[in-house]
Amino acid sequence: MNQHLALSTLVVRDYDEAIAFFVGTLGFQLIEDTDQPEQAKRWVVVQPAGAGNAQLLLARASTPEQAARIGSQTGGRVAFFLYTDNFERDHARYSAAGVRFVRPRTEQPYGTVAVFADLYGNLWDLVQLRQPPPAAVHSVVFAKDKARVAAFYRAVLALEVAEDEPGFTLLTGRGI
User: Fold this and answer.
1) Helix (H, G, I), strand (E, B) or coil at 74
2) Residue 85 contacts by C-beta under 8 Å, 6 or more apart in sequence?
3) What is the pLDDT of residues 105-139, one digit of tens each?
4) What is the dihedral of CA 14, 95, 27, 111, to 10 degrees?
């Protein structure tokens, strides 16, 4: 089975002010803004810049119950987690644009994080994850009998072996 979460809904007061914040202030991309007159609404979808596929549906409140949830869809908990490849860049850009950080930058075991509020008060984590360890590690082994050593590493440890230079063998794989 192959599934992914495509859209999350954020209830907003006004489409245009929400677009101005998410696209203009946070730098999100406007994916769709389609008028749906038969339902007296617009279909407005934004997503963070980059390669991710998570999108946010900006849905204008149409009932008093929905309007009461604007800015507090999660009861004061962090609602969204915005991952970045450069915390310093985005924190500085958001701060300069007037984004209100409600919890300062901290270093956590998983990475660097600060909490900001969107224009309605919903809380967001700005997160730069720690770099994962490399998938493969390289090691050089010097051996008199390269063929025998290479055969051992291939057979016993299931490593890739490249014999690029006379006198040594390059091993590539996990766990070296």
Assistant:
1) coil
2) 50, 128
3) 999 999 999 999 999 999 999 999 997 655 544 45
4) -120
Each residue's pLDDT tens digit, 27-51: 999 999 999 999 999 999 999 998 6
Q: Under a CB-based contact definition with an 8 Å cutoff, are residues 138 and 171 in contact?
A: yes
| 62 vs 143, more confident | 62
- Cα angle: 69, vertex 48, 122; to 5 degrees: 20
End-to-end CA distance of the chain: 34
Answering whether pTM is above 0.85, one says: no
CA dist 161 → 137, 145, 150, 165, 175 (Å) = 12, 14, 6, 12, 14
Q: Which domain holds residue 92?
A: 7-129
State the total domains in the chain: 2
Same domain, 95 and 148: no
Task: Examine residue 114 and state whether it is found in any structural domain, yes or no.
Answer: yes
